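Could you join me in thinking about how sequence relates to backbone shape in a protein? We need material for that, and I hope you will provide a protein of your own picking. Label the sequence line and the structure token line clearly, so we can match residues to local backbone shapes. Would you write everything just below, so we can both look at the same thing?
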Amino acid sequence: MVEKNYSKSYKNRDQRKAFLDGEQVEGRQAVLELLKVAKRPVKELLIAEDYVRSGQLKHIYDRALVAGVLVKKVSKIELSHKAVTEAPQGVIAVAEPLEAVALAKLIKTSLVMQSVPFMVLLDSVSDPYNVGSIIRTSLAAGAAGVILCEHGAANITPAAAKAAAGAIEHMPLARVSRAPAAIKLLKEKGFWSIGLDAHSGEYLNELPILAMPLVLVMGSEGQGISTLAKERCDVLAKIKMFGPVESLGVSAAAAVACFTVAQHRL
């Protein structure tokens, strides 16, 4: 996915860790979930002036009005100029930024909500589309939370929010400086850690710990999991492949891995 330049400045590091961006939300499903969940205020909604031609856009328009959101009908050209992604699908919302959950709090909550929780840790995944897609997959597979690393990773940009298709409004998201420290804390709280590594000799679906509290660690698109994070993981495993391709992209691998774990918890 090609994304226009999008950057956010923060006054200090603590503020950066507390918020995950996510102010500009584009795409019909992403905006609809933003309005439905209503966990953060929506400041403004820009919608294509011919919105009545689409049942979903009309539904978004009506819901925004009921919620008291400022709605502006704009031309497709104006909408395109405001958009950061290439296809905003006729609607853009501007909301308060997403607030990150402290990892310690996320762990505590997950242990209360799920008897055997699992989480997903993204070690420097830099493509916003992959970040959003993995958040969406993790939610669908029943993960208790997704942990994002500050170092070398994508934030919740408009492209990530669109790829997540509303999942960012439901999924608890934590932000940590680096993956190794997060893995260490999770292990101290009773979580097993599995790092996805295409060069491992172990197969994910054959591991005996999939029904235990665990965290799946996914590495960056080019380099995979960092060396220290690999060392901190309890086990490295790969997805069993049946064709000539040796590995999957990180978002596809996350989908297979998350549902492999989910199947062992039915």
Summary: The longest strand covers residues 42-48. The chain has a mean pLDDT of 91. Residues 103-263 form a domain with the Alpha/beta knot fold (CATH 3.40.1280.10). The longest helix spans residues 250-263.
